[in-house]
């Protein structure tokens, strides 16, 4: 009988065998669907009803290849914690193939937690908590308007795994992305010493992600310039919502500008520019305020990997790459100003220097008094309508004169209250709420996860439920929140 599953293409596997390795996802003893993202399924023309069948669930785990599919583990290198690692690659994941999107272009269909590959550093399996975490965080980022990979599904495998001495239920994540081409993919291709392979990879990435760019005689330069622009927008977006990626190495950054790998990430509660959440970031390399600096550093590694195809002479290629990367600072500042212009409710008639000044003064006040980042920006909508009680109440009495002076100056700029209410979120994935929901899911209760996802998918509209009230308020504890990579 013909499979009800639609076909996948194998463009990556067929075009780049040097950057792929065959993989056979392990069979799961008792797969059970924990979450299915109908919105993502429709975007890549997959029938949710089919995916809910036994055949569909086993497709989501990678065990049941769709017609035309050849699962492969992608090979890449990367700079982790500033140190070059020549071979990283998919140690527990497989690219199943590609699907056309309703919105245009193609998307990778990718599974994570499938068991060992030839590049595994641990056993290759994953557990319920981290996989549902990626689902939650991806949906939140998408709803906040930031480019991101998204979960198509999370499937419990029925095979418990030992993690940190504890037996936990196993799970597989099925993820959709514009592609999985990482900065580290370019680094690995460059390390093979085959300029033609690198040129083909650049041409493929340009066609996939930046088809409108006129590459002309210098496609590698056009590609790098496009990635720099996307990275500037991506990083400014993170800074605008208080997102800390947590492990911003070159193998965890995509050339598309989509956010990937929601492991030791978190959102700010009380504003702290030096916030670090990852349990292994002992020196604050990937702290919140350092993300623009680190992204620029990562782009420098990408540029040097491309040096051999940016010019005939490698030294000239590095100089060209450095020149392109040097534009990141200006582009990031422009993007950051745009983000905070919107967060302040100011229109285009207000000059950029004024926007930057009021944003910087606000952030300084938030940092000095550890005020909730998300709540402050949301409360500006009420303040713009003449009631600044909530904004003032977030600060201690000692800050009253400084806050009043800031509010007076900002109000004189005639901020748009409606814009503020539709662009500053009420709800973000509060770290303690996410943790509570994941603990419940691991214990077998999925209702908190599903309720949380529904709130996060519409973050600008206030709701009146118990979870909504808790999600809108920061925790009162002073105990620092800690995240883990989940491997």
Automatic annotation (TrEMBL):
Signal peptide: none annotated. Keywords: ATP-binding, Magnesium, Manganese, Metal-binding, Nucleotide-binding, Nucleotidyltransferase, Transferase. It catalyses: L-tyrosyl-[protein] + UTP = O-(5'-uridylyl)-L-tyrosyl-[protein] + diphosphate; L-seryl-[protein] + UTP = O-(5'-uridylyl)-L-seryl-[protein] + diphosphate; L-tyrosyl-[protein] + ATP = O-(5'-adenylyl)-L-tyrosyl-[protein] + diphosphate; L-histidyl-[protein] + UTP = N(tele)-(5'-uridylyl)-L-histidyl-[protein] + diphosphate. InterPro entries: SelO (IPR003846). GO terms for molecular function: nucleotidyltransferase activity. Mg(2+) binds at residues 252, 261. Its EC number is 2.7.7.-, 2.7.7.108. It is an enzyme of class 2 (transferase). ATP binds at residues 89, 91-92, 112, 123-124, 175, 182, 261. Pfam families: SelO. The active site is at residue 251. Its cofactor is Mg(2+); Mn(2+). Belongs to the SELO family. HAMAP family: SelO. Nucleotidyltransferase involved in the post-translational modification of proteins. It can catalyze the addition of adenosine monophosphate (AMP) or uridine monophosphate (UMP) to a protein, resulting in modifications known as AMPylation and UMPylation. PANTHER family: PROTEIN ADENYLYLTRANSFERASE SELO, MITOCHONDRIAL. This is Protein nucleotidyltransferase YdiU. It comes from Microbacterium trichothecenolyticum. The gene is ydiU.
């Amino acid at each position: 009988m013909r499979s009800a599953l639609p076909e996948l293409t194998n463009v990556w596997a067929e075009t780049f065998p040097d950057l792929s390795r065959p993989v056979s996802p392990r069979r799961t003893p008792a797969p059970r669907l924990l979450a299915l993202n109908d919105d993502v399924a429709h975007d890549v023309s997959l029938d949710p009803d089919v995916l809910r069948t036994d055949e569909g669930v086993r497709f989501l785990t990678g065990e049941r290849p769709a017609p035309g599919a050849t699962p492969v583990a992608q090979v890449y290198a990367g700079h982790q914690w500033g140190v070059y690692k020549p071979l990283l690659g998919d140690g527990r994941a497989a690219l199943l193939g590609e699907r056309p999107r309703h919105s245009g272009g193609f998307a990778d269909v990718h599974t994570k937690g499938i068991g060992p590959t030839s590049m595994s550093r641990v056993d290759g399996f994953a557990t319920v908590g981290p996989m549902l975490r990626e689902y939650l965080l991806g949906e939140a980022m998408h709803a906040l308007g930031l480019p991101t990979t998204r979960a198509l599904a999370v499937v419990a495998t029925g095979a418990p795994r030992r993690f940190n001495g504890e037996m936990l239920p196993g799970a597989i994540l099925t993820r959709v992305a514009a592609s999985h081409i990482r900065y580290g993919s370019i680094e690995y291709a460059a390390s093979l010493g085959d300029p033609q392979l690198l040129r083909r990879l650049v041409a493929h990435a340009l066609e996939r992600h930046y088809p409108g760019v006129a590459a002309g005689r210098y496609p590698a330069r056009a590609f790098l310039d496009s990635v720099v622009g996307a990275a500037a927008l991506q990083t400014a977006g993170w800074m605008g919502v208080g997102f800390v990626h947590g492990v911003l190495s070159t193998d965890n950054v995509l050339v598309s500008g989509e956010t990937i790998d929601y492991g030791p990430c978190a959102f700010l509660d009380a504003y702290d520019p030096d916030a670090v959440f990852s349990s292994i970031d002992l020196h604050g390399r990937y702290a919140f305020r350092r993300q623009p600096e680190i992204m620029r550093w990562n782009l420098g590694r990408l540029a040097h990997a491309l040096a051999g195809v940016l010019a005939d002479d490698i030294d000239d290629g590095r100089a060209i790459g450095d020149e392109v990367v040097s534009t990141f600072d200006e582009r990031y500042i422009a993007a950051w100003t745009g983000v905070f212009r919107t967060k302040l409710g100011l229109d285009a008639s207000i000059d950029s220097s004024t926007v930057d000044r009021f944003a910087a003064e606000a952030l300084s006040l938030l940092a000095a008094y550890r005020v909730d980042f998300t709540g402050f920006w949301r409360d500006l909508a009420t303040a713009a309508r003449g009631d600044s009680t909530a904004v003032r109440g977030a600060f201690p009495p000692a800050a009253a004169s400084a806050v009043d002076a800031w509010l007076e100056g900002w109000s004189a700029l005639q901020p748009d209250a409606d814009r503020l209410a539709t662009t500053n979120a009420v709800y973000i994935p509060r770290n303690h709420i996410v943790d509570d929901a994941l603990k419940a899911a691991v214990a077998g209760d999925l209702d908190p996860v599903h309720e949380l996802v529904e709130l996060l998918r519409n973050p600008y509209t206030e709701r009146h439920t118990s979870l909504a009230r808790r999600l809108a308020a920061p925790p009162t504890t002073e105990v620092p929140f800690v995240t883990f990579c989940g491997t």
